[in-house]
Write a structure and sequence with these properties.
Radius of gyration: 27 Å
Strand content: 5-15%
Protein name: LRAT domain-containing protein
Number of helices: 10
Pfam families: LRAT (PF04970)
Distance between the termini: 113 Å
InterPro entries: LRAT_dom (IPR007053)
Organism: Urochloa decumbens
Structural class: alpha+beta
Number of strands: 7
């Protein structure tokens, strides 16, 4: 673990079933996470290739997915090992090479001490939460590969959230907060530390301001970690899938009801318009009067 303080890089020969691995993307701006299940295969959660954050802007292509579809896109032939497993999005399984997409391999650490956690200034590399056994982790990952992990969300339900859930079985209950992702928690803590208005009243020197800002950043990261959050609860994977399916069914029913209501409203509007047109026609062209008598 001491070596992991400087780098979480690991050789693929040292991987074990159930390991949470990741690889940095776009010059270390963000990382893509997954669960290693053995035989150089990885299960991970992704949005459609080229739509990682779904903003409809150039950022979608900048933050690319690590799905087999992304790796086999363009003129290059599909991967001989996992090309037949291609899915457009959701929970996917791919070989380790496609997952890494040319990047280096890193191991996410669990059950670290508070001192180690704070020493790793970059979020999304470790957590204070303890990991379950490798078999339990692999079971969750395979179950979600078959059943799905819900809708992808950069802030609530991303690839790191998926991997952390598989490792710990922990979910965040609070609706108005970021998910389990250490990357997003780190970013949120940084913005909060810089934007906190009391900073200018706590110190008058540049050095003091840096110390206060660093302190607030560390506190923000620590209280957001899944290992210390009070709103984190253990949820069996079968229960999670059942809840997700029920929510999706309810949303589909709501959308269908809204669509039906809109169709009925449009039909009534069309009928009213037809009646109004007919009334106008009678006004403009009154029936002819018989003057023969």
């Amino acid at each position: 673990m001491a070596a992991g303080l400087l780098s979480n890089r690991v050789d693929r020969e040292d991987l074990a079933v159930g390991d949470h691995i990741y690889s940095w993307r776009a010059a270390y701006i963000y990382a893509h996470h997954g669960i290693y299940i053995g035989d150089e295969m990885v299960i991970h959660f992704t949005r459609a290739a080229g739509h990682e954050i779904g903003t409809g802007t150039f950022l979608d292509s900048f933050l690319f997915s690590s799905s087999p579809a992304a790796s086999s896109a363009g003129d290059s032939p599909p991967c001989q090992r996992c090309g037949h497993l291609v899915r457009p999005d959701g929970v996917v399984m791919s070989c380790l090479d496609c997952f890494l997409h040319g990047g280096s391999l890193y191991l996410f650490h669990y059950g670290v001490s508070p001192a180690f956690f704070l020493a790793k200034a970059r979020g999304g590399t470790c957590t204070l939460a303890a990991s379950d056994t490798g078999d339990a982790v692999a079971h969750r990952a395979r179950y979600l590969l078959d059943k799905g992990f819900g809708a992808y969300s950069l802030f609530k339900n991303n690839c790191e959230d998926f991997a952390i859930y598989c490792k710990t079985g922990l979910l965040v209950e609070t609706a108005f907060s970021v998910g389990r992702s250490g990357q997003l928690a780190s970013l949120t803590a940084a913005f909060s530390a810089v934007a906190s208005s009391p900073l200018r009243f706590l110190t008058t020197s540049a050095g003091g301001l840096a110390v206060v800002t660093t302190g607030l950043y560390c506190v923000g990261r620590y209280v957001s970690d899944i290992g210390v959050r009070r709103d984190a609860v253990k949820v069996p994977v079968e229960t999670l899938v059942a809840q997700t399916s029920a929510t999706a069914t309810a949303m589909e029913a709501e959308v269908a009801a809204e669509t039906s209501a809109s169709a009925m409203e449009a039909e009534v509007t069309a009928e009213n318009s037809a009646v109004a047109v007919a009334a106008d026609a009678d006004t403009v062209c009154p029936p002819a009067v018989d003057r023969g008598s």
